[in-house]
Amino acid sequence: MEILIGLFIIAIGAFCQSSSYVPINKIKSWSWESYWIIQGLFAWLILPFLGALLAVPEGHGFMEMFSQADSFSVGMTIFFGVLWGVGGLTFGLSMRYLGVALGQSIALGTCAGLGTVMGPILLNVFFPEQNALEKLTAAVIIGVVVTLIGIAIIGVAGSMKSAALSEEEKKAAVKDFNFPKGLTIALLAGFMSGCFNVGLAFGADINFPETGAMFKSLPATFLVTIGGFVTNAIYCFYQNQKNGTWCDYKKAEVWGNNLLFCALAGALWYSQFFGLSLGQGFLTESPDLMTFSFCILMALNVTFSNVWGIILKEWKGCSQKTILVLVLGLVVLIFSSFLPQLIG
Asked: Which of 69, 149, 162, 311 has its CA 20 to 30 A from that of 80?
C-alpha cells in the first residue's frame, strides 16, 4: 500500500509539472526572457528554499545543514544544477519547434533514461567506496531500456506527423514546427536535464540524521535549482540586454497579473520534485523503485504533457495510425515505470 501511495504522490507532482506551462499563456506584455526568469524566482529559488526548510529538524539551523556536509558534494550538486539549467533553456526551445506533447515526450523521456543511469555512474567515479553502481540492478537497467524504446516510438509518431501534415496544418498546430531541428534540441535538452538527477545523487547525504524520509532530498533539490537559476538568469538578462526588453519590468500595470501567473507556474513546476521527495518517503522498502523513481516521474510527465497536447489540439489532423503509434509509445513509457517492481 505504501508503494502505491508513493507512486500516487509522484503522479500528482508529474501532473502539476505538465500543467506548469498553461499559466504562462496568461502573462501579458512581457517577452519570453522576462517572464521566464520571474517564474524561475519562484520555481528555482523561493519554493525550493521553503521546501528545504522542511528538512531542518527542531534544534538545528538551515545553514548548519550545508556547512556540516562534504564541501565537494555541495559543489558538485550545484555544478550539475548549472548543467541542468542548460537543459531547461533548450527544453523550452524543444516545445517551440515540436509542441508541448512531442517536445516534452522526447526531452523528458531522454532525461528519464539518462538521468537514472548517469547518477550512480558518476557518483561511483568520485566515491567508489559507496558502491553506487549496485543501484543499477538488472531490473533498473531493463526499465531504462524500455523507456528509451518508448521514446523512439514517440519519435516515430512525430516523424509521421511531420511527413503527413501540410505546412499550413503544421503551423496551425505548432507555429514554428520543425521536426529535425526540434528533435536535435529535445535530445540535447533531455541529456542536460538528466543532470538534475545526478545533482540529487551527489547531494543525497546533505541532510540531518533526524530528517524525515519524505524530506531528505529537498536540500539537494534546492542546491540543484540554485545552479539552474544562475544559468537561466545569465541567459535571460543577456536576452533582456540584446532585445532591449529591460522595459518589461517597468510595466507596472501588468505586474499584478504577471506575478500571479509566474508564481502559479513556478509552484506547479516545483511540485514535481517536492512530490518526488514525498513519494520516495513511501518507497524506502523497494531500493529498485527508489533508484528508478526519477525515471517514473519523467515518464509520467510525458504522459500528462500529451494529455495537454491533445487538449491544445497539437495532434489535430494526424492520421489514426499516427495516433496509435503515439499511444503505443506512451503505453510503453508507462509500463517501463513499473517494470523494476514487477521483475525486481
From this structure: 149
Q: Is the pLDDT of residue 227 over 90?
A: yes
Model pLDDT, residue 307: 74
Give the residue among 262, 329, 201, 276 at the shortest CA–CA distance from 45.
Answer: 262
Q: 108 with 206: CB under 8 angstroms?
A: no
Q: Are 79 and 287 in contact (CB under 8 A)?
A: no
For the purposes of burial, counting CB atoms within 10 Å of the CB of 132, is it exposed (0-12), middle (13-18) or buried (19 or more)?
Answer: buried
Segment 123-139 mean pLDDT: 87
CB environment 210-229: b (16+ within 10 A), e (fewer): ebeebbbbbbbbbbbbbbbb
Measured on CA atoms in the order 156, 177, 112, 304, is the torsion positive or negative?
A: negative
Alpha-carbon gap, residue 339 to 344, rounded angstroms: 8
- Between CA 200 and CA 297 the distance in angstroms is 14
- Which residue in 322, 336, 327, 269 sits closest to 157, CA to CA? 322
Encode pLDDT of 274-284 as tens digits: 999 999 999 88
**Cα 161 to Cα 319: distance, rounded to the nearest angstrom:** 8
- Residues 303-342 have pLDDT tens digits of 787 777 777 777 777 788 888 988 898 888 778 877 777 7
CB burial of 143-161 (b: ≥16 within 10 Å; e: otherwise) equals bbebbbbbbebbbebbbbb
Of 213, 285, 297, 246, the C-alpha closest to 16 is 297
Measured distance CA(338)–CA(6) in Å, rounded:
12
Q: Which phi and psi angles does 335 have, rounded to 5°? A: -60, -40
Q: How many CB atoms lie within 10 A of CB 142?
A: 16
Per-residue pLDDT reduced to its tens digit, 189-200: 888 988 999 999
Q: What is the total residue count of the chain?
A: 344
Distance in angstroms (rounded) separating the CA atoms of residues 82 and 18: 22
Lookup result for grid cell 514554428:
176
Closest-CA residue to 263 (of 15, 35, 14, 52): 35
